[in-house]
Structure formats: structure tokens, C-alpha cells
Predict the 3D structure of the following.
Amino acid sequence: MYNKRAFYKQMRQHKANQYGGCGMHSQKRAWRSKYNASFNYPPANVRELDDKYELYLYAPGYEKSDFIIALIDDRLSISVKEKKAEEGNWRRQEFAQQEFVREFSLSEKVDKSAIVAKYVNGVLILAIPKLEEFETSRQEIAID
């Protein structure tokens, strides 16, 4: 029989000694510092309809006022600035809202002046209308 608490304490100490006390592999630490990498990158879905594109950005836990949506030339930029974490006596804390930036290239097909955004149930939805001359026409073809 062994003492679980002592075993895990010993394992944590071993990992701390192995990785220089930072709890992270040295190559991963070097990669993150070199490329200023952040793993907080909200996923996005883009759907094409006949008259518009719809961009869905999954970002729960924010409010409408937290988002900064900017159009710079042909790039649509969606960002959130870092919020102060709630101070408290946390027993366990596995997530924190962090800042992020997502950028999307827009083609000449879209009407950049008519982009509309809404935030519903943790999903930011952007409607990006197409210009009239670029609307998609669909036709069904019968299979013989």
C-alpha cells in the first residue's frame, strides 16, 4: 500500500525539477515566447447563403460590449481585450477569459458597409451581405 498524497507530491516535485520549475516543457516554453502564442483561439464557422455569408464565432462568457469589430481594408478583425479576473478564494480555476484576435479576409463580393453583428447565447453572429452582382444562383439538376 502506498500513500497517494505523498506519491503525487513526489511526482509534482519531479516535474518541477525536470522542467525548471515552470511546469512546462522547455521547447513548448520557447515556442510560446518566440511566437507570442496563445491557445485561446475561439472557433468560427462560415456559411454561404444565396445573398450573404454568415460568420459564427463561438465565444461564451463575454458581453456585447466586450467585442471590438473593425474593418481594415479587406480584413475583418474581431477582438476582445483582457478583462480583470474576479478576485476570490478559488479552490479550483480551470479557465479564464483572455483576450483574442481573429481576422478574416473579405473578397470583393461582399458589401462591407452593410455588415451586421449580434451576440446570442455565447455565439457572435455576423451577417456579411453579398453585392447584388455576386449573388449565388442555384439550380437543381435531375439525375437520369
Remarks:
- The radius of gyration is 23 Å.
- The chain has two helices and seven strands.
- The first helix runs from residue 4 to 18.
- The first strand starts at residue 44 and ends at 48.
